[in-house]
Design brief:
Structural class: mainly beta
Largest sheet: 3 strands, antiparallel
Mean pLDDT: 74
Strand content: 25-35%
Oligomer: single chain
Radius of gyration: 21 Å
Distance between the termini: 53 Å
Shape: elongated
Length: about 100
């Protein structure tokens, strides 16, 4: 059995980003803020994971600390959710033997 947390990769902190100046800021001087980051828990077929969400985007998945043998599959959640080949809305086949041409 491996030690918990050994398969977690460390991320470099994101740099501060400019924000629209507030009412008390001098004109032309943007204020800097940290990205909004929160953690939530999700349950998958492969186990339980703590998910880091930053600015409404999944940035990291961590195995649940009480899981004695976490699967590495769940660590791919961020890249799977935001991959360019992910279908983000329902699609209808336009050609082929099972095409639904009446819906296109």
């Amino acid at each position: 059995m491996r030690a918990l947390g050994t398969n977690i990769t460390k991320r470099r902190p994101r740099p501060l980003r400019p924000e629209t100046p507030g009412p008390h800021a001098e004109q032309g001087e943007p204020t800097l803020t940290e990205p909004t980051r929160k953690r939530t828990r999700t349950l998958t077929h492969w186990g339980v994971y703590d998910i880091d969400v930053e600015d409404e985007r999944i940035v990291a998945a961590h195995p649940w600390v009480d899981d004695p043998d976490p699967s590495n599959i769940g660590l791919s959640i961020p890249s799977a959710i935001h991959h360019e080949s992910r279908i983000t809305q329902p699609m209808v086949r336009a050609q082929g033997p099972t095409a639904h041409t009446a819906l296109v």
